[in-house]
């Protein structure tokens, strides 16, 4: 059964048609690569799934139920977590504080709620261990490597019972070793039955972890193929328009 | 089992040790400087450690200290509040007028604090919801609040506070044991602010907004509400400072709090709060205010022309920021 299903998603900004009738179907534990050149509509599609703005037409369903998002928090409550391109981390806070940002563990009396540092350090520590990351809960994000930052942003998605994780260019600005780390993290999410959408420009990464790849060009879906039945050359052709459709 | 132990180690592990944290802390160094100056003054001047002088120093520092504590959360969110001095003036005048017209003390204080809260609410709403620049809004409010104080007082000085006159003068000018009342209020506020910043979600959000406002918004932090609350708190502290200062002076006049905002901002920055946001502590605001007052007092006792005070305080401010820059440069390298 499909976990996340988009049907006929269109979006126009005034006269500009950013997306035109996009269908996407994603099952549990599936990793989908979302590719396309700049301006192809990837970001718009991600923002619609993330609840940043609603589609002009089309429906989104999660587990068979139609859903409507008015703001990013709505999407999160429904089980869609986003790892933003800039990771949305606060450099001045610890790893644990960032993981729990906006949904802190609290303790205390009926109306006076205090931060529960102990629970947050413990829980964050376990999440990092699950992700096999060397990130430590008390470390300041300011002093972390790119891979460790990714781990913090990904650990954040593991706090709730997320069904779908959207990752926007997670490997764009980090070193080769850290890329391997991030791909490993994606595999761990997949093994946990989570559906992952990987937005990326990097062909090798998409072919390393994705089950199938969806290609957008000028707001239209031009391909949706299992990774085993395509090649980097074909995908490149689809992105640039050298190959019309596949 | 070993696995579990390594997990607990990782959870307990800190990036830097206790001493490293202390040495990397601006407020620690300012504390050292305060102690050094005090020691020198103790040897050089026989008046410095006298009860009367300590009474003066501590009480003078209290008013700047209360304001500095109030603007600390504002500055941590990368905002600024230039209006606190004028809020003091307006708040003190409302309190004075209320009491001189025969109202009891509690009503006068309520009116003064209420006025401050209202001004803070206006500041915060304009900044958080209309997205106006904090600098411009509070600069405007600096002018507005000062002018309103003149309007309602018609430029007159108030020195009689109705039926509760004596109790009110006692509140600002009195002491409990050896300790002047304004100091007790300052220390209480410092403890409350420390608690709010470190132990509550509110404090966590204040730091998060200063660190990365967009990230805070995306993760569901009520950014606008928190911002408004910081300006309201800042104004509230200005109101409290006004109550204590007017009670101590024994009169409410139109110059109450003039220029205090700059000293308060200087005190927070000296104590290690970063104007770029994300960094700052309650203790830093406190110790920064102490340093400013100790410098002023030392110059006074040393017989230096008081016209020089601004030069020394200003130099201390620039030096503090400069030293912090050097330390950050080294720790990032």
How would you classify the helix and strand content of chain A by structural class? alpha/beta
Mean pLDDT of chain B: 91
Overall radius of gyration of chain A: 18 Å
Share of helix of chain A, binned = 25-40%
Number of E-state strands of chain B: 2
Q: Return the domain count of chain B.
A: 1
Continuous helix count of chain B: 15
Strand percentage of chain A: 25-35%
Unreliable stretches of chain A (pLDDT < 50, length at least 5) are none
Q: What kind of sheet is the major sheet of chain B?
A: 2 strands, antiparallel
In the CATH hierarchy, the third-tier topology of chain B is known as: ABC transporter involved in vitamin B12 uptake, BtuC
Average predicted confidence as pLDDT of chain A: 88
Would you identify the regions of chain B where 5 or more consecutive residues have pLDDT less than 50?
none
Judged by helices, strands and strand pairing, the structural class of chain B is mainly alpha
Assembly form of the protein: heterodimer
* Sequence of secondary-structure elements of chain A: EEEHEEHEHEEHHEHEHEEH
What shape does the CA trace of chain B take?
globular
Which two chains share the most extensive interface? A-B, 36 and 27 residues
Just give the CATH class of the domain at 4-88 and 160-240 in chain A. Alpha Beta
Please write out the topology.
The complex is a heterodimer of chains A (246) and B (333).
Chain A: E1 4-13, E2 16-26, E3 31-35, H1 42-50, E4 57-62, E5 65-67, H2 72-77, E6 80-83, H3 95-99, E7 106-108, E8 113-115, H4 117-130, H5 146-157, E9 164-168, H6 176-191, E10 195-199, H7 203-209, E11 212-217, E12 220-226, H8 232-240
Chain B: H1 2-12, H2 18-23, H3 26-44, H4 51-76, H5 84-100, H6 105-128, H7 134-153, H8 165-173, E1 175-176, E2 179-180, H9 181-199, H10 201-211, H11 213-218, H12 223-249, H13 260-270, H14 282-301, H15 309-332
Antiparallel strand pairs in B: 1-2
Helix pairs in contact in B: 3-14, 4-9, 4-10, 4-12, 4-13, 4-14, 5-6, 5-7, 5-12, 6-7, 6-12, 8-12, 9-10, 10-12, 13-14, 13-15, 14-15
């Amino acid at each position: 059964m499909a976990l996340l299903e988009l049907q006929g998603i269109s979006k126009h900004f005034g006269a500009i048609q950013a997306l035109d009738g996009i269908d996407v179907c994603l099952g549990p534990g599936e990793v989908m690569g979302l590719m396309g050149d700049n301006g192809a509509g990837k970001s718009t599609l991600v923002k619609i799934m993330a609840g940043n703005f609603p589609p002009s037409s089309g429906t989104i369903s999660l587990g068979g139920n139609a859903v409507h998002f008015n703001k990013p928090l709505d999407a999160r409550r429904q089980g869609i977590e986003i790892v933003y391109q800039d990771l949305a981390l606060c450099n001045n806070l610890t790893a644990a504080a960032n993981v729990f940002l906006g949904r802190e563990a609290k303790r205390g009396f009926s109306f006076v709620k205090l931060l529960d540092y102990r629970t947050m350090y413990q829980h964050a520590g376990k999440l990092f261990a699950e992700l096999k990351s060397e990130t430590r809960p008390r470390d300041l994000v300011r002093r972390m490597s790119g891979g460790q930052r990714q781990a913090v942003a990904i650990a954040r998605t593991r706090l709730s019972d997320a069904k779908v994780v959207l990752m926007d260019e997670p490997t764009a600005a980090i070193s080769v070793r850290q890329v391997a780390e991030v791909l490993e993290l994606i595999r761990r999410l997949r093994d946990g039955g989570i559906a992952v959408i990987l937005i990326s420009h990097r062909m090798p990464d998409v072919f390393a972890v994705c089950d199938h790849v969806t290609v957008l060009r000028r707001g239209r879906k031009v391909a949706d193929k299992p990774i085993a039945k395509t090649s980097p050359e074909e995908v490149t052709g689809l992105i640039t328009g050298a190959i019309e459709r596949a | 089992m070993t696995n579990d132990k390594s997990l607990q180690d990782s959870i307990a592990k800190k990036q830097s040790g206790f001493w490293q944290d202390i040495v990397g802390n601006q407020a620690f160094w300012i504390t050292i400087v305060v102690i050094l100056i005090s020691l020198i003054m103790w040897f050089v001047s026989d008046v410095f450690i006298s009860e009367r002088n300590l009474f003066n120093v501590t009480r003078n520092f209290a008013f700047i200290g209360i304001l500095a504590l109030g603007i600390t959360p504002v500055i941590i969110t990368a905002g600024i509040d230039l209006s606190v001095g004028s809020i003091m003036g307006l708040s003190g005048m409302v309190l004075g007028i209320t009491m001189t017209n025969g109202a009891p003390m509690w009503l006068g204080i309520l009116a003064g604090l209420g006025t401050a809260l209202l001004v803070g609410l206006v500041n915060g709403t304009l900044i958080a919801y209309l997205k106006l620049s904090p600098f411009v809004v509070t600069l405007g409010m600096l002018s507005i609040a000062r002018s309103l104080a003149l309007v309602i007082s018609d430029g007159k000085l108030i020195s009689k506070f109705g039926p509760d006159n004596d109790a009110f003068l006692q509140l600002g000018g009195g002491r409990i044991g050896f300790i002047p009342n304004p100091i007790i209020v300052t220390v209480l506020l410092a403890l409350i602010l420390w608690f709010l910043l470190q132990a509550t979600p509110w404090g966590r959000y204040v730091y998060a907004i200063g660190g990365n406002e967009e990230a805070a918004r995306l993760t569901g932090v009520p950014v606008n509400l928190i911002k408004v609350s910081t300006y309201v708190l800042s104004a509230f502290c200005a109101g409290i400072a006004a109550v204590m200062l007017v009670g101590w002076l024994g009169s409410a006049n139109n110059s109450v709090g003039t220029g205090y905002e700059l000293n308060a901002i200087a005190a927070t920055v000296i104590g290690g709060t970063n104007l770029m946001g994300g960094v700052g502590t309650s203790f830093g605001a406190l110790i920064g205010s102490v340093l400013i007052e100790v410098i002023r007092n030392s110059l006074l006792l040393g017989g230096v022309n008081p016209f020089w005070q601004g030069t020394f305080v200003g130099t201390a401010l620039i030096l503090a920021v400069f030293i912090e820059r050097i330390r950050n440069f080294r720790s990032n390298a």
